[in-house]
Amino acid sequence: MKISHIFLTAVLLTGFSSCKDFLDVKPSNAADAANAIQTPADAQVLIAGLMRSMTSSDYYGRNFILYGDAKGGDLTIVSQGRGQDVLYTFNHSATSNNYGGFWSQIYSCIAQTNYLLEGIAKIQTNTATNTYDTYKGQALTARALLYFDLVRLYGKSYTDDKTAFGVPSVITTLGTDAQSLRSTVEQNYTQILIDLKAAAPLLPKTKQNGYINYYANLAIQARVYLTMGDYPNALKAAEEVINATSIYPGLYTNGEWVDSWKSAFGKESVLELGIYPLEGDLTTASLGVYLRRKSDGGSAVLGFFMASDYFINRIKQDPADVRLGIMSYDEISNTRLGAIYKYSGSTALFGDGKGSSTAVNIKVIRLSEMYLIASEAALPTDKIKAANYLNAIRKRSPSLVPATNLTINMDMILDERSKELVGEGQRFFDLIRLNKSITFNDEIAGITPASRPKTIDRTFNKTRLPIPDAELNANPGLRPQQNAGY
User: Fold this and answer.
1) Beta strands in 322-470 (DSSP E)
2) What Cα–Cα distance (Å) separates residue 74 from each residue in 315, 369, 380?
3) For labelling, which of 148, 275, 460, 465 has a CA lying 20 to 30 Å from the CA of 486?
4) Does the predicted model carry a pTM greater than 0.70?
């Protein structure tokens, strides 16, 4: 589907309009595109729809997080053919296993942000009002995150080649005849930062459960700057979130950490997407199902992925590591802790307080990550500060010797990021941006994938997804811009 068609479809199916007479209510899945935003309440409904769209299985609801951990080597498979194992084997082509759902779903979300922003601009042109500012700020921040994720899926790393092709950058609604071509990676990041900086002063500095606030914007800025290798700005943004103690009173204690995965919108949650029974619940297709032990929950279709030996060896460096509390034995044996229960609650209790083991919120950004970003960003210039930030997280492994300014290094920080953020889709992007090699635990399934070697680095062409063939057919100008090797 061509991007312009995605945008038009998203606008027409948004389905948001203000209240009208009972007999004049239009269908809930259709709206007059020119008039759907007339009040702040309309804008709020559109934002709610956007947040809901981001929990699709083709995005944060499942595949985007699996992408980061499976391709980053922290997950492995016990057999092929169970579902989504192509993320592990890299068996992608433009015509099959291309994960075009990323392209269509994320651009559909971008369509919603563009439509909302244009609607607000039209209102503010005719009437001087700031009552829409928070919705404008949320839409701009969301669009920045959407493009940040897209360019990492389809473009080279910023620290590798920022002049390489990124993704088409479209910040207005398009007509059906539009033929958008790829911007460069640098152009994508420039727009991402423009959106984030324009949005920040519009956003509330209070906690907004399920929505974007000022500190979520800063946390995304910290991620973006870290990925760009801009450590001073990454540190500045991360520290502002860390120091907002009236909103985020501090890290979970070791005694609180496991139970934090049983509750929604906890004190470390900077950006969390709500998923509710009968509303966004993917049931047996949910992220938690793909990570937990096979047959746990009464169905034989569970447990598609498990932690790799490499991850297990890393986290078991300290048998007292509290994060082992969200791990449980997998189908290989009753001792191998390969099942991950972040999105099913703990091993003793499913869910996050909603009475469901699958309608579990997605924690997109947590305060812990800000400490890890601050540690890495401080490392080149202030090793004492870097060690202090790292130790705030490393203390979750109480038997390990704390880092010092003499012992801290990048590999130590990366190992801690892996242990803290497993199941949150970060590992692959960390290793790619830092040009580290990734080795896969193929021995578990006894496979030798023809589509990738056992060890890769960012020179391997399939570290970027192909532009889907359907998009190339609809927009032939993109065909010469297809990623190499596809």
Assistant:
1) 327-328, 339-340, 362-366, 438-439, 455-456
2) 11, 17, 27
3) 148
4) yes
